From TrEMBL:
GO terms for molecular function: ATP binding; GTP binding; hydrolase activity. This is ATP-binding protein. The keyword GTP-binding applies. Keywords: ATP-binding, GTP-binding, Hydrolase, Nucleotide-binding. It comes from Streptomyces cyaneochromogenes. Pfam families: ATP_bind_1.
Amino acid sequence: MDFKGSDTIPGPRTEDQLPHTAEAAVKIVIVGGFGVGKTTMVGSVSEIRPLTTEETMTQAGIGVDDNFGSDTKTATTVAMDFGRISITDQLVLYLFGTPGQERFWFLWNGLFEGALGAVVLIDTRRLEVSFDVIGRLEERGVPFVVAVNSFPDAPRYGIDDLRAALDLDEEIPIVECDVRRRASSRDVLMTLMHFLHSLAVSGALR
Ligand SMILES: Nc1nc2c(ncn2[C@@H]2O[C@H](COP(=O)(O)OP(=O)(O)OP(=O)(O)O)[C@@H](O)[C@H]2O)c(=O)[nH]1
Ligand SMILES: [Mg+2]
């Protein structure tokens, strides 16, 4: 078949192409309850235009969906967010943000598949959601760090109090962040990478 006359299918945009020096790619999931800032984090840190699957929150969701903060929030993730960040010239992270609404949590198992590690985003106004989230990661054996996304009106707790409230082992890093800021989101990912590295060195990484 002669395709000479056909329109050329555009290739990937230059900024979307992997650096030719990239040697390793790692899958990381960003997980947490409804509206904690997962999509915002993937968007702020991604070096490619992030893929999002957000749908407008409508009246139909009232009584079905979580509605915390919905006076300011108009969209919610229904499948996943996807982004990419190069940590070094050789190491690239692929970021998968999970949906926060409980009715979509069944999708998490697929998203956890092959993940080397996770960021658990936490809003201290709704700590209770984090118990389920952390429980699921522990069940799957996915190592994680906890990042507290500091909303202005959220109660502030010391790291030790948070560790106790979430029943986290001593070695699991807990950091504060503002996911709207690229540098802050990047710091969280660096914390996770250092944690994964320490697990690998100690032989604890499965
Ligand atoms: N003030 C403040 N607002 C934030 C912060 N992080 C996120 N937001 C806002 O909070 C809202 C929730 O962010 P999303 O990124 O949609 O949260 P999500 O976790 O992806 O939500 P779901 O996909 O619905 O679970 C957005 O309107 C953000 O702009 C923060 O650190 N401070
Ligand atoms: Mg989202």
